[in-house]
């Protein structure tokens, strides 16, 4: 089931990569939607006896957070939420991956936000693009409190945050 076209060293294409978040607010009546525009990263896929060996890293510039409302962006970057002065980056480190179906990989990763780290399993859809790049798409739901993102004026914000990520990687070798 492993696509041998995946084997190699890969560099993230930041112009074609998107990291979006959605979080309920106003006691679930509305949603805050936003993006992180500053991203970098790389990955490696090698053949292994039992499938593939996957490693990689995605670095997100926490200061690149945008929701479309400057005052809200400033508040989300403050110590109440992401505290970007002290913690300017968010990272996802991929330790391994298991092919689970045609075009699907279950990635084992560690997400670091502020000074908190938690392991994640990310069901990821992988497709080859026309130009030979790899397009990885995943979604997950996180509890923001587990990462110290705990600002919550008058209890208006829920704890769950939905993350949608599309990473495009260009072959390096």
Structure description:
This protein is mainly beta and 173 residues long. It has a single domain, classed as Lipocalin (Beta Barrel), CATH 2.40.128. Helix content is 5%, strand content 58%. It has one helix at residues 70-77; strands spanning 8-12, 18-25, 30-36, 39-48, 51-61, 65-66, 89-101, 104-113, 116-128, 134-143, 160-171. Strands 1-4-5-7-8-9-10-11 form an 8-stranded antiparallel barrel. The longest helix is centred in the middle third of the chain and has 8 residues, at 70-77. The model has no long low-confidence stretch (mean pLDDT 90).
Please summarize what this structure is:
It contains 1 helix and 11 strands. With 173 residues, the chain is mainly beta.
**Tally of DSSP β-strands:** 11
Total individual domains = 1
Output the radius of gyration.
Answer: 17 Å
Helical proportion, percent range: under 10%
Poorly predicted regions are none
Query: Structural class from helices and strands?
Result: mainly beta
CATH class, named Mainly Beta
The span between the termini is: 22 Å
CATH superfamily: Lipid/polyisoprenoid-binding, YceI-like
Please count the helical segments.
1
- Average of pLDDT: 90
CATH architectural arrangement: Beta Barrel
Largest sheet, spatial ordering of strands: 1-4-5-7-8-9-10-11
Question: How do the helices and strands follow one another from N- to C-terminus?
Answer: EEEEEEHEEEEE
Q: Tell me, what's the shape?
A: elongated
Write the CATH fold name.
Answer: Lipocalin
Largest sheet: 8 strands, antiparallel, barrel
Strand content: over 45%
Pfam family, one: YceI
Domain Lipid/polyisoprenoid-binding YceI-like: 9-170
InterPro entries: Lipid/polyisoprenoid-bd_YceI, TTHA0802/YceI-like_sf
Protein name: Lipid/polyisoprenoid-binding YceI-like domain-containing protein
